[in-house]
Amino acid sequence: MPIRTASAQWEGNLTEGSGKIKTGKGGYQGNYSFKSRFEEGEGTNPEELIAAAHAGCFSMAFSKGLADAGFTPTSVETTAKLHLDKTDAGFGVTRIDLETVGNVPGIDEGTFLKIAEGAKENCPISRLLKPGAEITLNATLA
User: Fold this and answer.
1) Residue 16, exposed/middle/buried by CB under 10 A (0-12, 13-18, 19+)?
2) Among candidates 124, 115, 1, which has minimal Cα distance to 53?
3) What would the CATH number be for the domain defined by 47-141?
4) What are 62-117's pLDDT values in tens digits?
5) Could you give the CA distance from residue 46 to residue 74 in angstroms, rounded to a whole number?
6) Lower CB count within 10 Å: N or C terminus of the chain?
7) What's this model's pTM, rounded to 2 decimal places?
């Protein structure tokens, strides 16, 4: 498997400085700052990028699980809401709430939910994050 890369550049001190984050193949480049991370400033932040990675990973794993069970999804749309909280150990990712809507012809709700739960447990980003963060799932069959 290929090795995936990303880079970050930062200038200045923590609260007044700013930086740029980019993926290795140039698919994404964005600005980040103290305000975009800990307030509501313009730009992205590391936690938002982790949430995007989790939403993408889950959607792909869910689509694969559906296909393995004989169902071809028309669409899977997932939002990941990452909670960055201050704990006794400092700031940390404490919870990620996955919300997904799947348009999957011919599937019943029970099967849909079972496959969604399996994707939540087994996508690589979930496996990376779950030792330290609670992961919740709200799956809706469209």
Assistant:
1) exposed
2) 124
3) 3.30.300.20
4) 999 999 999 999 999 999 999 999 988 899 999 999 999 999 999 999 999 999 99
5) 31
6) N
7) 0.93
